[in-house]
Amino acid sequence: MAFDPFAQYNVSDPYGTSPSQRLSMALSNTAYKRQGVNRDLNTNLFDMSKAYGKQTPQIEAGMARRGLQDSGIRNKALAEAMAVYERQRTQQRQATQDALMQLALQDLSAYGTYAGQRFQSTLGGAQSQAEMAAQIREALG
User: Fold this and answer.
1) CA dist list (Å): 111 to 1, 28, 103
2) Does residue 129 lie in a domain region?
3) pTM of this structure
4) Is 12 inside a domain boundary?
């Protein structure tokens, strides 16, 4: 096995020719996705808070029309609306945490691939040198 210093390079991909460039691309990709996940979370939380803000006066008006503004039914309706709102917020936050965890795992995978490619390159160089040393010893002996 001859040492091939260009084996680790991908000549068909002009943007990711070396392992370090491929690592850099993978990390920048996940950073961009992470920003999108956070942006989606903020947008969804804003929309949910607006919807809840519109729902509360409707509940109040409905109870006032029925003459129930001082009743436990009104309090229960408001509590149920708040519970639904909080459940949706919690689900959004959990989905965001799951997405961020997947992106962190992608980062770790990219680091692992990079380290593996660097190790393989070093190992290939060491094997090539050992083969060459054995050939030289054989030729001298």
Assistant:
1) 27, 13, 12
2) yes
3) 0.66
4) no
